[in-house]
Amino acid sequence: MAMSLGFFPNVFLRDSASFVKSSPATVKLVPAVRTVTVMTASKPATETKKREPRGIMVPRRVSPEMQAFLGGVAEIPRTQALKEIWAHIKQHNLQDPADKKVIICDEKLKQIFGGRECVGFLEIAGLISPHFLK
What we know:
The protein is an alpha+beta fold.
């Protein structure tokens, strides 16, 4: 039978020793029993193979307008093209100061965004889609 220690809850006694009352005058300290689980490796580690790129990571041919923007690159993944566009936006400070979600297009961006003056940052991925040829 466990003995209460007054205001300390029994939770503190769970992982340590438990108190057992053997007679009205003495209290014995009995160590708690813990179980140990041993895990074994099922298979040795194998070589990780480099996967072929999939989806938006696959390099695709781009339109002449996008090639001019990217500096003559004929094939590029969508992710890398988007990084190049954002680098151009940040480098030339083309975000609207009042609303950073809006991009004010310069002449280079107008060529790939269909001549639009302003573009929302969520629209960029949709506006560059026609520039990736199949």
